[in-house]
Amino acid sequence: MEGWVIEFHLDGRSGVSPYLQLVHQVRHALRLGLLREGDQLPTVKDVVARLAINPNTVLKAYRELEHEGLAAARPGVGTFVTRTLTDASLAAHAPLRRELQRWLARARQAGLDDESIEALFTTTFRTASEEDIA
Q1: For residue 19, which of 23, 55, 60, 118 is within the disulfide window of CB 3.0 to 4.6 Å?
Q2: Structural domains for the chain
Q3: In sequence order, what DSSP letters do the residues of 14-70 get, joined into one string?
Q4: Which residue in 90, 97, 78, 114 sits closest to 5, CA to CA?
Q5: Model pTM?
Q6: What are the strands, taking DSSP E only, across the chain?
């Protein structure tokens, strides 16, 4: 999948179906401005070859993105992004990203591995979200 704007990966331990993992990765790339309107998604053939998954899984993900209005298939050409999910405040993300990078560095210096960091973040995020609701 050399040369594609997005390179998919799958996590068999996530509990999330492979097609949804692909959909989530595209949404994530759209939110971060990594994918833009007009960008071509990797071909089904390339995704299948790289991830060793069923072509129907990739097709299902791409159909979901089409249903959401985020992508459109052009027969014989490929699947292309039709809109983004970025907002005007994307520039405001830079300071938050730097702060998060510093936090990650401190977490690693404290001896946390990637799984521990992710667990800490996820737990804290969910707790904060629940507190916002209450």
Answers
A1: 60
A2: 18-81 (1.10.10.10), 88-133 (no CATH)
A3: S-S-HHHHHHHHHHHHHHTTSS-TTPBPPPHHHHHHHHT--HHHHHHHHHHHHHTTS
A4: 78
A5: 0.69
A6: 71-74, 78-81
